[in-house]
Amino acid sequence: MAATRYDPKTAEPRQQARWAAADAFSTPTQGTGKPKYYVLEMFPYPSGNIHMGHARNYVMGDVVARSKRAQGFDVLHPMGWDAFGLPAENAAIERGIHPGDWTWSNIATMRDQLKLLGLSLDWSREFATCDPAYYGKQQAWFLELFKRGLVYRKEAVVNWDPIDNTVLANEQVVDGRGWRSGAVVEKRTLSQWFLRITDYADDLIEGLKELEGRWPDKVRLMQENWIGKSQGATVWWPIDQAPEFLPTSDAGQPNHARDPIEVYTTRPDTLFGASFLALAPDHPLTKAIAEHRPDVAAFIKACAQTGTSEADIEKAEKLGVDLGLRVRHPLDPERTVGVWAANFVLSTYGSGAIFGCPAHDQRDFEFATKYGLPIMPVVKPDGAGDDFGVTDEAYTGPGTIFRSGFLDGLDVNAAKAEAIARLEAQDQGKGATLYRLRDWGVSRQRYWGCPIPIVHCPKCGAVPAADLPVELPKDVTFDTPGNPLDRHPTWKHVKCPSCGTDATRETDTLDTFVDSSWYFARFTDPTASEPISPNAADHWLPVDQYIGGVEHAVLHLLYARFISRALSDAGLMTVREPFAGLFTQGMVVHETYRRADGAWVEPTDVELTNDAGKRSARQLSTGEALTIGDIEKMSKSKKNVVAPQEIVDTYGVDAGRLFVLSDSPPERDVQWTPGGVEGASRFVQRVWAEVDGYDPAFAGEAEANAALVRETHKAIKAVSEGITGFRFNSAIAKLYAFVATIRDSAKAGGEAKREALKALLGLVAPFTPHLAEEGWTRLGEEGMILDAPWPVYDPALAADDEVTLPIQVNGKRRGEIRVARGLAPAEVEAIVMADPEVQSRLEGQTVRKIVVVKDRIVNLVVG
Ligand code: ANZ
Ligand code: ZN
User: Fold this and answer.
1) How far, in Å, is the centroid of ligand 1 from the Cα of 231?
2) How far apart (Å, rounded) are the C-alpha atoms in residues 342 and 108?
3) Residue 776, burial from CB neighbour count under 10 angstroms (0-12, 13-18, 19+)
4) Nearest CA to ligand 1 atom 7
5) Peptide bond just before 542 cis, omega within 30 deg
6) Which of 3, 11, 387, 778 has the most other CB atoms within 10 Å of its CB?
7) Cβ(533)–Cβ(487) below 8 Å
8) Of 11-20, 310-319, 466-475, 767-776, which gets the smallest average pLDDT?
């Protein structure tokens, strides 16, 4: 029977129409009674187009969703849009389109592109976060958290563009300048809204432990580091001498010139090694002194101009200025040390002041070396004597305390506890736990976001808005800089919901990370009147498998974990840990092509030639020679993207789906190449050829049939394990091999062959679902493969190809040998006789008889 060619162009739309007609992927909100499985890919930002780079993420989720469905689960697999954000406003500014129109039209385009991929998504649950039906519910829970004190207002610094007179998002600050005006950006302080994530710092760290094994270790570690719990002590250093210009009488006010200076340390064991105190440049005492000391004022100014990230500070040269103040050592009252201002002390951490111990802290070491301050070791490593010195770099390892009075002879940990006990007894300090995590500033001075549902009343202060949703007004313009909500003629003017006085709405909108911090819960019942339907959420949450980019390892995942906890404490949901399993996928990368004038050129407009290993590129439309650039993440700006439509037109979407998963492990990047997709497309044809060529009339030969049955069970085992273990590339490699085995089993037929083909289709279905359906029908099977159960294997049949044969000599076990299963006795005999170990045992004796029981045992009779 001559096989026909498989035509994805007709088959794929045919199968998609079938799924749609059967409404195959809608999942009832309460399930159907089977065990539940919630698989979710991080929902996309509607930037304009879906390309094959995004597609990999969704295809991975689809492989999980389809295989779980076949394995008997009720699967929830929804999709939506993270639709608020700055690019929409930029489009409005640049092209005069309303941000809403731009966003909704992108959503329409991208929905169509996603649908091309044949994903098993429940589109009935789709929503966009910019829809008032969604963000109104967000406002409702925001107010619930407000009532519970988890939302508060405080002063915080923003980027201010002095030419455009507007607040800039961090992304709009390029090399310290406003992206449009080019003006040097200033820091300004505004009153802004915060969420009290720090209340949950410990709980968020604790929760990470349960996720071990189901979340990548590196992501758990990144979260832990971000929260940054540290244990130590605050220590108060009384002022001994202060410059005369500082006030001395204070009438009960805090007095920076007289009150002890508080420092935070994680190493109270090294207190006797203190050689100076250092304050942040913007510490109140530094500022007070700067009023009288121009050199200190100049130092503060210089520090404000360098980067403020911890990484910048770590790299920069350690600089300081002596403040002319001395403080008394709390545990060694005979001694005083000098107080400096230093650029490496952050005002936002601890108390914005440290004691410097140059022998055991590298930053302090560099500082002391530069300014000639004493370096006094107080921890010596095991085996070192009392002459232990620190010359090239600080010693930060473990050891025994010395030159430290009552701490001498203790190890580091015991000394920490002892020092804290003494400080507490003398009321000179106390044990303290600190977190690097700060409260989450959620105010954005932008239009295209969820309005913060607060009304400012001159009498009542900040009051919850009435009548949710507080909708964004549509009639806004972007012709002048600044927040259109702020200058809208009417929108912000309302009566106070609590006293009726003229009041104004909050014009800040919420950080878009708020929108994505709970969408997974809303998906469980997107039309519920409550923000989160208790029944639906309790049924479906947590998300069993979450899939997304590692770039979200910290913020998005941390915020979602926090909001789940906060909402659950507020009684709005039950599950506190929202994502039971997490997988972070690698990206699709592609070569880049550039013209001499620097413009990027799309791959579809490029002709590649390979001349004896030397590759060159030419632009098809102009004939111009191109430079082949780096292999980079697919992105619109580099034009190195491949659209789903192109793949559908040329190879069919199944080939594209298969390829993005086949060439490298899912956690790593995969390089898109035309050759790679072609290979995948040939595989699709090969599968079809086997199915199409199946001849039910040919019964096959017993031995070949048995061998094929074994191969089938082995393939089911390997592919199933590959999918559950997120080793999609090895699962696919196994499928390639299995197809080759079927093709090579010319003497196999009948039920064995049919079962092999059915298993093959079942196993490829998560990857190439359209092909699998077509094949299913071609084999004459009932219904859709979508509703067929996952192929199961018999462990005995799937077992190894090799068997271990015990070797008995005169009835006693003397060793063993591994040979291929089913090997003929004569061949086993030859192997045994040639085996050096067997020979050495037989030394000097004659083998009288050898009996091989196939796949069982070897018996030697010697004498
Ligand atoms: C004295 C000392 C001696 C320190 C020693 C370290 C080693 P983590 O672990 O990150 O919490 N520190 C405290 N506040 C600071 C601030 N605002 N800016 C910069 N550095 C600050 O770090 C705590 C340690 O960082 C503290 O312990 C303090 O230096 C410094 F052998 O105190 B240590
Ligand atoms: Zn009021």
Assistant:
1) 11
2) 55
3) buried
4) 361
5) yes
6) 11
7) no
8) 310-319
Q: Return the ligand number nearest the Cα of 461.
A: 2
Please tell me the residue having the least CA distance from ligand 1 atom 22. 266
Ligand 1 pocket member 267 (CB < 6 A): yes
In this predicted structure, what is the pLDDT of residue 636?
78
* DSSP class per residue in 255-308: -TTTSPEEEEES-GGGGGG--EEEE-TTSHHHHHHHTT-HHHHHHHHHHHHS--
pLDDT of residue 1: 47
Instruction: Report residue 428 as tokens.
Output: 């000179």
Question: Can you spell out the DSSP letters for 752-798?
Answer: HHHHHHHHHHHHHTTTSHHHHHHHHHHTT-SS-GGGSPPP---HHHH
Contact at 8 Å (CB) between 646 and 590? no
Ligand 1 within 6 A of CB of 357: yes
CA distance 529 to 533: 8
β-pairing, 670-671 with 588-594? Answer: parallel
Ligand 1, atom 2: closest residue by C-alpha: 267
Is 574 near ligand 1, meaning CB less than 6 Å away? no
* Rounded Cα–Cα distance for residues 775 and 692 (Å): 7
Q: Are 430 and 260 in contact (CB under 8 A)?
A: no
| Binding site membership of 358 for ligand 1 (Cβ less than 6 Å) | no
Q: How far is the CA of 388 from the centre of ligand 1 (A)?
A: 23
Query: What is the mean pLDDT of the segment spanning 191-217?
Result: 96
From the CA of 230, give the closest atom in ligand 1: 11
Q: What's 368-421 look like in SS3?
A: HHHHCCCCCCCEECCCCCCCCCCCCCCCCCCCEECCCHHHCCCEHHHHHHHHHH
What is each CA distance from 143 to 82, 468, 534, in whole angstroms?
21, 10, 18
Q: Alpha carbon of 799 to those of 571, 713, 755, 819, 820: distances in Å? A: 51, 8, 18, 14, 12
* CA distance linking residue 361 with residue 390, whole number of Å: 11
Residue 264: CB within 6 Å of ligand 1?
yes
Q: Are 823 and 840 in contact (CB under 8 A)?
A: no
Ligand 1 binding pocket includes 737 (Cβ within 6 Å): no
What is the distance between the alpha carbons of residues 41 and 556, in angstroms, rounded to a whole number? 13
Mean pLDDT of the chain: 93
Nearest CA to ligand 1 atom 10: 230
Phi and psi torsions of 536, nearest 5°: -65, -45
- Cβ–ligand 1 distance for 265 under 6 Å, the answer yes
> Which H/E stretch holds residue 631?
strand 625-633
pLDDT at residue 101 in the model: 97
* Ligand 1 site, residue 349, Cβ cutoff 6 A: yes
Pairing outcome for strands 847-853 and 670-671: unpaired
What number is the average pLDDT over the span 333-350? Answer: 94
DSSP assignment of 439-489 equals -EE-EE--SSSPBP-EEEETTTEEEEPSSS--PPPS----SSSS-HHHH-S
What is the atom index within ligand 1 of the atom nearest the CA of 434? 11
- Pick the atom of ligand 1 nearest to 379's CA: 31
Token pair for residue 802? 């090799």
Ligand number nearest to the C-alpha of 232: 1
**pLDDT for 309:** 60
For a ligand 1 pocket test, name from 230, 265, 343 the mutation site with the most ligand atoms within 8 angstroms of its C-beta.
Answer: 265
The verdict on the CB of residue 516 being under 6 Å from ligand 1 is: no
